[in-house]
Amino acid sequence: MQGSREKGAPICVGLDPVLEKLPEEVRHGVDGRSAADAAQAIYTFCSGVLAAVAPYVPCVKLQSACFERYLWPGVEAYHRLIDEARELGLLVVADAKRGDIGISAEHYAAGCLAEPTYEDMGELAGPDALTINGYLGADSIEPFLDVARKQGKGLFVLVRTSNPGGDALQSLTLSDGRPVSDAVAQMVATLGGGAADIGESGYSLLGAVVGATKPADAARLRLIMPRSIFLVPGYGAQGGGVKDVLPCFNKDGTGALITASRSVLFAFAKNTQVDWRSAVREAALQMRDEVKSGIGW
Amino acid sequence: MQGSREKGAPICVGLDPVLEKLPEEVRHGVDGRSAADAAQAIYTFCSGVLAAVAPYVPCVKLQSACFERYLWPGVEAYHRLIDEARELGLLVVADAKRGDIGISAEHYAAGCLAEPTYEDMGELAGPDALTINGYLGADSIEPFLDVARKQGKGLFVLVRTSNPGGDALQSLTLSDGRPVSDAVAQMVATLGGGAADIGESGYSLLGAVVGATKPADAARLRLIMPRSIFLVPGYGAQGGGVKDVLPCFNKDGTGALITASRSVLFAFAKNTQVDWRSAVREAALQMRDEVKSGIGW
């Protein structure tokens, strides 16, 4: 991923803001009765996090749900933060996990991935990549691919998720012996495997979400999707450590983007000796060094 | 579904507005360069559709993608329309197909399904039901169930979709001989099968999306999920007719909600002899009569 070498490691800080967990100096007693005030508080917090981590990490991921909760003021904050992160030179993954068919998928691709072209929304940049759900099949992915191809963006299809319940469907065995997740992986490898979709890095614009808590699955999925970048959530708070994420990389130490959210974002709760921004920065640096050392960069 | 008997048939009109297809008298030359103007135009159109169909159909479904395309002004229009539809006595399905884990799922449940409690957003009602994607497993569904249980709302899990590409994953055969969609159906039947989740109607608050274009699958899925209401998109423009949707019903003619979007919403394009609202109303009435007659109500 662009910027990973310069900044030391292919890591991503997840912005999943939760009002109740914000530092009191940011929250100022905002209790969520006003959507606009709540959106402003999480915007201020995330803006501070972006400034704190931008010099040290290549990428951030914004969790759309945390913003949608505050209706349209939250959605505005989400788009403003995407723009702000891009201005700071960060790669931005929009974690919205959208999935629909036909013209609905086209609309999601236009609203959640494409560069905005509106004349009345102020300065706005779109994200570099979007997470999508492939349960509806290839024709639900194609409209997103169209935008990604035209605008040089990326996609991460949910293949193997980090939550305990992910097994229920993703680990079911198919009649040919493969788990369901491998069939989704094969769809990703096929759809994004054309020469035109492979960039200078050797990786496709079509990536995959593979949870850090499933190392055995990651090793198998790495072979099925050699050209896909893995977005790997679940590092840190969800229990995945540096050894667990190693199978997500190709042998040359490339091909994965390791994501931590809560362990970095709310680091100030456990590190009260320093300013909250410093605590977040320190946690990001610690994660960077762990991953850098683990993959041997 | 509540209101279906009074209004003659269990049908749902899908609001999937597309700016370029609006009647010129509503669109007034708006070309999409202004997100606020585009959101206003689709709001005005949908508001007219709601008024036209409310006396004749029990339910509407709003396609979130069509509104999210216009960023936060679109999202505001979406929420205003949900409130307006509820005021008109319509049941409202929010078709947002959300799916995530843990606290992200809680945030989606709060923002996309729950009754809004904000003091600064004006009069707002939440939808009666939400579509969700179950690829991430039961723990991605539970947070939505919590809200549905507490607030008397419903959910429709994507089980078998109406698009051609849906087969790629949903029709794969598992080692026990079932297709993948049947495993998702079993998860729905189990999760929503508790006595407390079954309403007076005999149906669970946890329903399923089953496309109108897959009648053979629908018959099988009906047996797996006898207590789930099926939300059946794909009637009309997507090729599913009244015979195709009959297997979605239980033997007593209940248990399915048949949805048409484009064939009703844009009926004025083919019926230019009357006002656009009348054309939409006529198409809704025609669909109502077809379904009513087909299921023998």
Features of the shown structure:
homodimer, 297 residues, alpha/beta, TIM Barrel, 8-stranded parallel barrel, 13 helices
Radius of gyration computed on alpha carbons of chain A: 18 Å
What order do the helices and strands of chain A follow? HEHHEHHEHEHEHHEHEHEHH
Q: Which structural class fits the helix and strand makeup of chain A?
A: alpha/beta
The number of E-state strands of chain A comes to 8
The general outline of chain A is: globular
Largest pleated sheet of chain A: 8 strands, parallel, barrel
> Which stretches of chain A are poorly predicted, pLDDT < 50 over at least 5 residues?
none
Proportion of strand residues of chain A: 5-15%
CATH homologous superfamily classification of chain A: Aldolase class I
Judging by the overall fold, what is the CATH architecture of chain A?
Answer: Alpha-Beta Barrel
Provide the number of structural domains of chain A: 1
Percent helix of chain A, as a range, is: 40-55%
CATH topology of chain A: TIM Barrel
Strand order of the largest sheet of chain A: 1-2-3-4-5-6-7-8
Query: Biggest interface in this structure?
Result: A-B, 68 and 68 residues
The number of helical runs of chain A is: 13
Please report the first level of CATH classification, the CATH class of chain A: Alpha Beta
Mean pLDDT of chain A: 96
Assembly state (oligomeric): homodimer
